[in-house]
């Protein structure tokens, strides 16, 4: 039977069951929503962004008052003398596996991005602006799946498309002993070429995919140095590339999000206050709220960061009187202060997941006027033996006026509409939009799948697009037992 046939059969059975049930099953029920007491729950939006447009957005801009300290975006362990990354005229190579893990990521100076291909052998061709004598090169491993690391390759050169490739270097049985690991190679070469080709003939586990994050050509030798101090990067991107039980490479709402990334240098206090929007004029009332969603990424691959580096982040607001929300002691729905240090120390955020944070900022900032929106990394101390890299995403930042609702039933405080995206690999307590009548075992729920143990998946898949936004499809209503995969 086809999928459509099964679906029609299921609908027919469902209708038959409904028709056979007593009328009271449908018409007699208790009130689903608890009574709202003394609350104006009308939402009046003052300002919001889902990062679908870059209009007025400020990229990697440090606040002139708060500033930055002990943060770098330079992850290189080596000072590459004669680095030719800025001399590349063009590049080409084997087709990428997807639209996000592409060739250009090899040359962006960020080991948090990568190139992934299924080609065997695979190749990367770099065309320089002029002929250069290459004396060294660097290849950096990617964030995960060490079995995809390059193992055997050759580096070749030529000066025009009509010439044959000349092999400069051969490597076999190479090992990258960590994620984001830079392997550095010196060359005994005295010939200048304009084009260079890295041809990879085998990866570590012999599988179908090969990946790495950086490819650097240089005219000189490399010298090992400490990281240079700069600032945190904050820019609009597609979204987390490896979201657990949620759709990857998109924001929580829409196709884009904000990514903030850097490296905490040393063991002392490090911070970066980055402005993302300014020249605002938003007056705070007693019922003004701040809301956003945050995705702390495990940017160190499979190795968990027990310093919770990536969780020491928050959205901050600067007011026209020169004060900041992070200085005022505002509290979020979990009882934590809404500043980056307190958010990280709270251990309430979940890695590789979108987490919602909201706070009634009118309790501490009534009468103030918001002029800037910031994203902040702030960590008082870091264990140097642990991982110091962070990469965290933000989406759906909102400032709005609304009273907190007061319900007569505690269960009505739970938002059941979006589900919890439970999977067999990431099992957790389920929240589903279930209405239980007449007993507590079977549920009426909307279904996004006609043939799955997970009948309701709001955020994970995208069967069609509406106005450019990935959407899931509602198949119908079903009767379900207590939600689980087993």
TrEMBL record:
One of its GO terms (molecular function) is hydrolase activity, acting on glycosyl bonds. Coiled coil: none annotated. InterPro entries: FA58C, Galactose-bd-like_sf, GH-type_carb-bd. Residues 97-214 form the F5/8 type C domain. The keyword RNA-binding does not apply. Residues 1-28 form the signal peptide. Pfam families: F5_F8_type_C (PF00754). The keyword Signal applies. SUPFAM superfamilies: Galactose-binding domain-like. Keywords: Glycosidase, Hydrolase, Signal. This is F5/8 type C domain-containing protein.
């Amino acid at each position: 039977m086809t999928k459509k046939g099964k679906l029609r059969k299921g609908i027919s059975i469902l209708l038959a069951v409904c028709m056979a049930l007593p009328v009271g099953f449908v018409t007699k029920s208790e009130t689903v929503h608890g009574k709202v007491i003394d609350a104006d729950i009308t939402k009046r939006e003052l300002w919001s962004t889902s990062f679908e447009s870059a209009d007025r957005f400020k990229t990697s801009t440090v606040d002139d008052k708060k500033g930055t300290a002990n943060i770098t975006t330079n992850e290189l362990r080596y000072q590459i003398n004669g680095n030719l990354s800025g001399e590349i005229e063009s590049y080409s190579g084997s087709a990428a596996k997807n639209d996000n893990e592409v060739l250009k990521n090899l040359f962006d100076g960020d080991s948090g991005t990568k190139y992934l291909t299924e080609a065997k052998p695979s190749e990367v061709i770099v065309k320089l602006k002029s002929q250069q004598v290459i004396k060294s090169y660097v290849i950096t491993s990617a964030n995960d799946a060490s079995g995809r690391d390059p193992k055997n390759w050759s580096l070749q050169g030529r000066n025009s498309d009509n010439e044959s490739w000349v092999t400069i270097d051969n490597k076999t049985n190479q090992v990258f002993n960590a994620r984001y690991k830079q392997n550095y190679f010196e060359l005994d070469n005295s010939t200048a070429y304009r084009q260079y080709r890295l041809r990879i003939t085998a990866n570590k586990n012999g599988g179908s995919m090969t990946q790495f994050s950086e490819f650097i050509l240089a005219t000189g030798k490399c010298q090992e140095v400490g990281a240079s101090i700069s600032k945190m990067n904050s820019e609009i991107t597609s979204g987390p590339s490896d979201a657990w039980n949620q759709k990857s490479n998109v924001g929580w709402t829409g196709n884009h999000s904000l990514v903030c990334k850097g490296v905490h240098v040393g063991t002392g206090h490090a911070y970066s206050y980055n402005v993302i929007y300014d020249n605002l004029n938003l007056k705070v009332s007693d019922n003004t709220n701040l809301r956003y969603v945050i995705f702390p990424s495990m940017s160190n691959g499979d190795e968990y960061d027990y310093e919770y580096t990536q969780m020491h982040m928050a959205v901050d607001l600067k007011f026209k009187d020169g004060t900041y929300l992070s200085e005022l002691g505002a509290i979020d729905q979990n009882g934590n202060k809404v500043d980056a240090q307190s958010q990280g120390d709270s251990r309430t955020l979940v890695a590789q997941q979108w987490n919602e944070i909201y706070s009634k900022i009118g309790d501490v900032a009534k009468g103030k006027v918001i002029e800037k929106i910031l994203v902040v990394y702030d960590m008082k101390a870091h264990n140097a033996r642990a991982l110091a890299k962070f990469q965290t995403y933000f989406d759906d930042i909102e400032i709005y006026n609304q009273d907190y609702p007061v319900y007569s039933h505690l269960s009505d405080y739970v938002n059941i509409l979006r589900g919890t995206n439970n999977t067999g690999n990431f099992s957790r307590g389920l929240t589903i939009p279930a209405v239980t009548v007449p007993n507590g075992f079977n549920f009426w729920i909307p279904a996004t799948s006609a043939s799955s143990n997970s009948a309701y998946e709001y955020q994970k898949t995208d069967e069609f697009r509406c106005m450019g936004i990935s959407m899931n499809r509602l198949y119908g209503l079903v009767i379900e037992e207590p939600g689980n995969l087993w």
